[in-house]
Amino acid sequence: MSSVSVAMATYNGEAHIHEQLLSLANQSLAPVELVVADDCSGDRTLDIVREFARTAPFAVRIYENETRLGYRANFMRAACLCTSDLISFCDQDDIWNRRKIETCAECFQDPKVLLAYHNAVVIDAKGQELGTLDWRAAPRSLNPPMSINPWLIGPGFTQVFRRSLPAFLDLWSDSKDQNACGEPMAHDQWFFFLAATLGSIAYLSAPLAFYRQHGGNLCGWNGASACSKFERYFTARGADDSVPLERGCRRRAEILDAAQPRLEGVWHERAAEAAMRYRRLEQKYAARRTLYTAPQIGRRLKAFREILSLGGYGDDDVWKFTGKSLAKDVSVGIFFGHRLQRTPEALEEFE
User: Fold this and answer.
1) Which residues, including other chains, have CB under 8 Å from residue 176's CB and lie 6 or more apart?
2) What is the pLDDT of residues 6-38, one digit of tens each?
3) Which helix (H) or strand (E) holds 335?
4) For the whole model, what pTM was predicted?
5) Domains of the chain: residue spans and CATH
């Protein structure tokens, strides 16, 4: 079985990190190493890690950043410092199932798999269960290239991926997080994007970790009901949805263009095909932006027809807008879309 490195990014995590470290030490398949990249913690985080390192059943390598990098760059640094065949991201405040590493590593017996991720149980600060992350599930247990919704993300702490993926790290700074203005992709977005494009992604429905919510999480759990999500979808500003996704598509296509000279054979072909798909999707989002900003109904109708001509809707293809989007665009966008638009200045915030 392939060797595994655990990449942990830390920052002021003294409250929960000890319990996480103990769950690493208890793994049925021990990692070869734990790589800790600390982002200038001001508490006892590193003291706890150093104490753990004295008796850990694997090597513990600690790297202290000279200046704050932020969690995105810090996780990237941790991944690049790993030396094993596989890399498993690790947060500082969760608890891993004893068979998490072993179960995920088994997925890579299939050479087509570039990344595996799993379900998790969401708990509060006292350990009480709140729900699961099954809403982030991939469609199948094995998902071929470009068969997953391009905006789906497996949370970082659930991901294990091949060490070949960090080879494209120099392109990361050119990426764009569609959920955060002016930021590159988060670590989990980046590796999921590359893996879903170039290879297969394995999904494990078993909850292999406890995802702790304690009020200080950088990215928390959204436990909103399906009804409230549906209501928000139909009342949200349409242009707000389209602008960041449109520009996110453009950046992804540019990154795949830059990656192609480094790839050969089927890998090159997949990068070229995915770049084409992202550009076509960018066109759809641009038309949808017009649908929700143009003051004249004639322009909005033209934009809607353009989406149709691009094969824009359908629940049978992850690269199309869903039937729910079609219902919103017909009932809201064509007739009232311009009333939902933001100011021109706000629409430029994702440039």
Assistant:
1) 183, 184, 185, 244, 247, 248, 251, 350
2) 999 999 999 999 999 999 999 999 999 999 999
3) helix 334-336
4) 0.90
5) 4-213 (3.90.550.10), 226-347 (no CATH)
